[in-house]
């Protein structure tokens, strides 16, 4: 993925009002490009609830069959994941899961909502979770798409062998998470050793 990047820009004109274009670049060429029309927009500051800290990594939720069935929506889902996923992290704490971006595909529209996660007391160890709308809020409609061929798309997401994690041999885990390693040794001749008193 070294020659791979993202772009997004907004525009507004009489023919295509409130336009948003999201795309992938691969090897200095446009790979996928999707044009969305913004029918309704509510900004973060227009919603008067508490906000998350800037740079908070969001949890992404996709609802609607179109995201799994229709190719245009599948590629849009892929673009949105790449756009919003943020940096890769090795550990997550429960209190850090405080921002949700929810995308719903329904009746030819995409409803994009942002929520803050509130952890409430529940009377047991696991807290009760409530979502409070934080923003932004957009109602989007799919306008035009430019999608790469399946072959080019597969080539663009192929991971180089040097980046693939090396498989650990002779290591196993049980149901409790204990790690076991197997060591191979040459056969020993135990007749040489004096055992007993």
UniProtKB/TrEMBL annotation:
<dbReference type="Pfam" id="PF04427">
    <property type="entry name" value="Brix"/>
</dbReference>
<dbReference type="InterPro" id="IPR007109">
    <property type="entry name" value="Brix"/>
</dbReference>
<dbReference type="GO" id="GO:0019843">
    <property type="term" value="F:rRNA binding"/>
</dbReference>
<protein>
    <recommendedName>
        <fullName>Ribosome production factor 2 homolog</fullName>
    </recommendedName>
</protein>
<dbReference type="InterPro" id="IPR039770">
    <property type="entry name" value="Rpf2"/>
</dbReference>
<feature type="domain" description="Brix">
    <location>
        <begin position="1"/>
        <end position="151"/>
    </location>
</feature>
<dbReference type="GO" id="GO:0000027">
    <property type="term" value="P:ribosomal large subunit assembly"/>
</dbReference>
<comment type="similarity">
    <text>Belongs to the RPF2 family.</text>
</comment>
<keyword id="KW-0539">Nucleus</keyword>
<dbReference type="GO" id="GO:0005730">
    <property type="term" value="C:nucleolus"/>
</dbReference>
<dbReference type="GO" id="GO:0000463">
    <property type="term" value="P:maturation of LSU-rRNA from tricistronic rRNA transcript (SSU-rRNA, 5.8S rRNA, LSU-rRNA)"/>
</dbReference>
